[in-house]
Every structure is written in structure tokens, then in C-alpha cells.
Amino acid sequence: MQSVCPLPLSLSLWFSKAHVDTKWPSGHWCPRPLFLGIIHIQFPTTVWAPCSQIYHFSFNRHRFQTLHHAMPSHHLRKIVLSIELFTILAQCAHLNYTGEAVTTRFWDCCKPSCGWNGKADFNRPVLSCTADDKPTDIAAGTGCNGGTAFQCSNQQPWMINDTLSYGYAGTFITADITHGSVESAWCCACYQLDFTSEPLIGKSMIVQASNTAYDVNTANRFSLAVPGGNTTSTNACAQQYGVDQSVFGENMAGVSSIDDCQNLPENLRAGCQWRFDWFKDASFPSANFKRVVCPTEITAKTQCVRNDEKILSGEASSAHSLSPASYTMASLAAVLIGVLSI
Known about the structure:
Keywords: Carbohydrate metabolism, Cellulose degradation, Glycosidase, Hydrolase, Polysaccharide degradation. The protein is of the alpha+beta class. Helices cover 22% and strands 26% of the residues.
């Protein structure tokens, strides 16, 4: 039986001055547009042909004909592997946000900024909750502006071991790193924070960007979602939990001791205590950050997974996912290796 291969790539060297239609042996027609001396790359999604009938084309300038030359299957495999390799590398480079950042704390009970449709390319926005901590409709307005949607209580930090914790953060990454994008670049992405200042040197967190820290937009920043870690004058926490806003501490400071955590609603106390235990009540610790694949333990609580997670994890690569610049670089690099291997 003759093996059948997908045609992920057709290379056409255009030297003709007239439009030429080249008929593939399988019966498919490949239009040859009007160009001079340009290498053209096509990624057809529906064209299939026997491996032995995959061709590259050259132009006979004397007879103005398109000549067909069989390409050995091992050369084809090299080209396909080259395309896959450079596609993955270009995609990962485009997603690989790294840098230095400052970390702060917040817990204002507002609906997360990444909880709205259209903020990024994800499966769904970050989960928001009603006042009784039940998942609510995506379109529900934020409790910080008279609405009924609040931050779910389980979107708080927790310790994995002595040197690693998981959690959530309001995020801002500067334009020089995100290529000018804002929330679409970070909403629901996960970042590993390796702390670089005392008392947290040697410790790391993996946080999901569930919110946006717009109040400071001149530096990279991760504002950790910590119950009792900081509060605002919106009184959304009082509205959500039916308690006096003062139990969440002072405005812009939060509670002052681990004992004060006992005054918080019961489902928030563990995250509050985490601040004084694992986090050592650190104030504005610095960290190096890098984009990582989100642990399922984190996304299980927000239900938000970015569609580029599979690319980052290496599970999938798609030429259509590349930015124009990355697509061009990957394509040219693949062509060079493919040509050299023939």
C-alpha cells in the first residue's frame, strides 16, 4: 500500500513573468501568481497526495514551462520537521514574557478584571461569585460598582511546600515586554515569581493573572490576591460578606497581625494567615518573573485557560497562531533548512 502524507508545505520558486497553473498529479490545481524571483510558502490544510508524488517546481526560462521533480520522502521529512521546530520556537519566544517585578497585595472583593468576555483569547473569563460565594453569570456587574459579582473566596494563596505557593494576582507588564498589548497579553496567563529580596529569597510562587493592576503602570507588577492583605474604600467586602469593612483592615494596608485574620469570614482566614506564615508578612518584595504553563490546581478555581497554553506546553503548534513577524521568521528559517537538506 502506498503511504499518504499531508502536504504542510509547498515551495514554489517563481521565475515566470506570466500566470501559470500547475496541475498536481493528485488532481489538485495550484495557482502560480505573477511574481519574479520570490520563494513562496503555502500551508494547505486540505491537500493530500501520495508521498512519492510530492514535487517542487522550477521554471525553464527557455521554454516557459513548469518542470516537475520528485522529492525523496526523507527530504520531505526534514522540511516538515524544520517547519515544526521553528514554528514552536517562534511561538514560544512570542509568549515567553520574563523580567523583574515588584509585588504588592490586595483583596478588594471586586469582580476580577479578567472576568469579562473579550479580555483575552481564553476558553472563558475568570469565574466570579455571588455574595454567597456561588458562581455567577459572566455578564454580572462588579460589586465594586453596585453589581452582584465578587471575587470568589477560593481565589486566594495556598502553600504547596516550604518554598512554593500557588495563588492569583492583579498583573501589569510593561509594553516593551508585551509588544504593546495589555490585558490580552496576561489575563489568565500564569507566571512563576522567584523572589529576590528578603525575607523571601529562595521562595517562589506560581500565580495566575486573574486581575489587572492598572494603578501602577510604569513597572512590572504582581499584586497578590491575599485576604486581609489590602483593602479599598469601595466597601465591596462589606457588601459581599455582610460584615463591617473594618474587619478587612485599614485602607491600603489590610490587617496588621495574624490574630486579626480571625475576624475575617471563615472561608478567607487561611489565605490571610498565609501572609504571616509562608509569606512572612513581606512588604513589596521584588521578584524575577517568567511565563509558565498554568497548573490545573490553579485553573480549576478560575475555570479560565488561555488558548495559547498548548503552544507553551509544546502540545500543539499552529502556523496560524503566529504573529506576522514570528510567522515570517519561522517560515524563512524553515525554508533555509529545508533547502539545505535537499
